[in-house]
Amino acid sequence: MLSNGLCAGAFIRPYRSRAAVYLFWRLLQYGISLLPPLCYLLFLNEVIMKGRIDFLWAPFLLYVLTYAGAALTSVCQKRAYNRVFPVMALEWKGRMLEQYARLDIQRLQAYTAGERKLRLHNDTENAALYWEKTLEAGVLSAGALVTAGILLSLNWILALCSFALLPVSFWVTRLIRGRSSREYERERRLLGSWQDFMLHNLFFWKEVRTDGQQERQEKRFGALWKEMGQASLRAHMYWFCNRTFLAFKDVFLTRMGLYLLGGILVINGMAALPALLAFVEYYGNFADRLLELADIALKRGEQERSLERIGEIMALSVAKRPHQMEAFESLRCDRLTFAYEENQESVLRDFSLEVKKGEKVAIVGESGCGKSTLIKLLAGCLEPVAGEVFWNGQPAAQTDRASLYRRVGFLMQEGSLFNLTIRENLTFAKADASNRELEDACRRANILDFIQTLPLGFETVIGENGIRLSGGQRQRLLIASLFLQDPEVIIFDEATSSLDYQNESEILRLLTEQMGEKTLIMVTHRKTALTNCDRVIIMD
User: Distance (Å, rounded) from C-alpha 289 to C-alpha 463?
Assistant: First the structure.
């Protein structure tokens, strides 16, 4: 397993220069945020206390320049941010996907499907967030030190009194952080179980219904949802208690004490009223930064564990597969047998198939006959109990996965999409795809017109697994991704099942017309698709 420090360094190393630019703009933005209380102090001293009305233009101009500078740095900081952390999360999603593809099934099966999904989605986001919050903690700490110096220069007695309760704040935050981290970890484990439960029931809904397991699965769903909700509530309650305590202490008790003590000092000539009012303004800034640092500290443990989990996956050894697929020539399945559990009836038994380059083959059969299982065996998602899959005459176990997936494109019935933009989802198929290539792939999949009606177009975020899209739009986007990949072999597993007759016919027509020497293997239940194929394999 990679150490946490090594994994963290691996995350930030390629982005150091861009992170430095972001850090510069963030520090400048924070520095400008310290100027308004200075303008306020200048106004009180010169205009209010000394009655210099002719000097009013100075604080007014300084206010205008301050807020103009704040707006400019905010835009620059946001642009710098977008070049670092979203890109970091996206690229590490890609690396995790590549690692998953290289690993043997036995290694992957050590983690449930829900756990693998959480590591791919949540942990990569958390890892990017770790570095964002690390830089933010540095900015806030530096800003807090500068603000503390300003407070001391305004009135050292008030400053020391306001600092006296800081150790209590850090002690309470540290105490609550441990308990909060444990609850977040418990929530995450439950979320992994829930994700695994959902994936299993979505992928094998036919088996669940056939075996009469609906009522049992509904009860399990309710129990998991309840446990997960309780863990989430406890974790948020710890955060709320910590935030409430700090807000009550810093915003109410300390400020009230400052006004009381400051009033006494002003009466006794030990402080000036403008300095007292400016002190309170700066202290508000100081207290807000401490609250933000406390929030960062509470989430730190969760983010560090995400880095460790990613490091664990990336450190897994990958089996050496000597045979590279330079070009597709043939696929052969030799007497495949598969059962999902021991002592369970085989889904496939002694199934054989051979497909040559350029052939277009349809596989049909009744529900439960093993069509989708066959596709998963071809993709390497499952391993047969007996028999073997051969690519170009070489065993699948000895064929390099990366070269295989470059030549063969799989589109499963339950294909996945990320909670990212349309563009980002598509570029997983081709990282350097141009706008023209994206538009062409989407046009071929009959989804470009829909994308162009969206206010943000290709920059539209589609939600977890494309939840903001209809079933047909989601499948057309997956098909567009396959077109963008442009593989030599296309394997469809009911990939057009959510499309209406017209759209399905159009996509299949485009697909077969433009395939040329490409090979097509298509699992389907619609007779309209069979006319585009050279031969039909009937499974029973």
Answer: 32
Look up residue 375 and give its amino acid: I
The whole-angstrom separation of Cα 32 and Cα 24 is 12
- Of 17, 4, 11, the residue nearest 89 (C-alpha): 11
DSSP string, 345-376: --SEEEEEEEEETT-EEEEEE-TTSSHHHHHH
Band of residue 514 on the pLDDT scale cut at 50, 70, 90 = low
- Compute the distance between CA of residue 370 and CA of residue 383 in angstroms, rounded to an integer: 14
What SS3 state is found at 104? coil
Cβ proximity of 68 and 62 under 8 Å? no
> Can you say whether residue 91 is alpha, beta or left, with left for phi > 0 and alpha for psi between -120 and 50 degrees?
alpha
Over 172-189, what HEC string results? HHHHHHHHHHHHHHHHHH
Cβ(521)–Cβ(355) below 8 Å: yes
Contact indicator for 191, 118 with CB cutoff of 8 Å: yes
- Name the pLDDT band for 340 (thresholds 50, 70, 90): confident
Residue recorded with tokens 């002003």: 266
Q: Residue 231 and residue 179: Cα distance in Å, rounded? A: 11
The Cα-based distances of 211 to 204, 207, 215 in angstroms read 11, 6, 11
Q: Could you read off the pLDDT of 272-328 as tens digits, one per residue?
A: 888 888 888 888 888 878 878 877 887 788 888 888 888 888 888 887 888 888 888
Determine how many CB atoms are found less than 10 A away from the CB of residue 19.
22
Given the DSSP bridges, would you call strands 360-365 and 535-539 parallel, antiparallel or unpaired? parallel
Long-range contacts from 24-31, C-beta under 8 angstroms, 24+ separation: 24/80, 25/73, 25/76, 25/77, 25/80, 26/77, 26/135, 26/136, 26/139, 27/139, 27/142, 28/73, 28/77, 29/70, 29/73, 29/74, 29/77, 30/139, 30/140, 30/142, 30/143, 31/143, 31/146
What residue type is assigned to position 174 of the chain? Answer: R
135 is written with which tokens?
């830089």
Q: Does residue 507 sit in helix, strand or coil?
A: helix
Residue 320 CA to residue 530 CA, distance in Å, equals 39
Q: Which residues of 132-147 are buried (b: 16+ CB within 10 A; e: fewer)?
A: bbebbeebbeebbeeb
What's the mean per-residue pLDDT of the chain? 81
Is pTM, for the whole model, over 0.90? no
Residues forming a β-bridge with 490 = 409, 520
How would you label 266-291 residue by residue, b for 16+ Cβ within 10 Å and e otherwise? eeeeebbebbbbbbbebbebbbbbbb
Nearest residue to 238 via CA among 188, 176, 302, 185: 176
Write b or e for each residue in 403-423: b if 16 or more Cβ atoms lie within 10 A of its Cβ, otherwise e: bbbbbbbbbbbebebbbbbbb
Structure tokens at 236: 């948020």
CA–CA dist 255, 236 (Å, integer): 27
pLDDT of residue 423: 92
